[in-house]
Amino acid sequence: MKRAAPGAGTPAARAVAPARPHASRTGVRAFVGLGANLGQASDAIRRAIDALGAIGDTRVTAVSSLYRSAPIEATGPDFVNAVAELRTGLDPQSLLDALQTIEQAHGRIRGERNAPRTLDLDLLLHGDQVLDSDALSLPHPRMSTRAFVLRPLAEIDPGVRIPGAAPLDVLLARCAGQRVERIDDATR
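The chain above was modelled as a monomer; its predicted structure follows.
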């Protein structure tokens, strides 16, 4: 597997070969946050990355390392987190539907907010779209206050812009007190 192109984040970020030749090469750049804290969380994240690559008209272009973080506003075991960059021809709602299908396939049961989970896939960014509906908000409404999202996102692309938010380095400084540690390469 090749490393990300220069300027695409720290050396740990990996470029990922297209999963299928028919995947969109010119689609919208989207970012997905991955998290799990039940069962074999690291394995669940890796399987979810593979499943992202199987979404129609979508390909995974980069994946961060895995990170361990303490639950925020919840109790339970530490989470394992990562961020994946996609190129997709899907609109935001269709991509969200695909993400929720992957969650269900991994045993995700939607209960109380911030509860422990087998897999959580959050659509963080879809191009520069800003939207707020009952089903979906973009950018993800809590991403700019979560170190477990910002650190892996910065690993992939430290210059990424979150519409309506401060630069990534400023956001990271604001949540510096949140415990997040890099634990592994997600592509192993």
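The helical segments are 41-52, 92-105, 147-156, 168-174.
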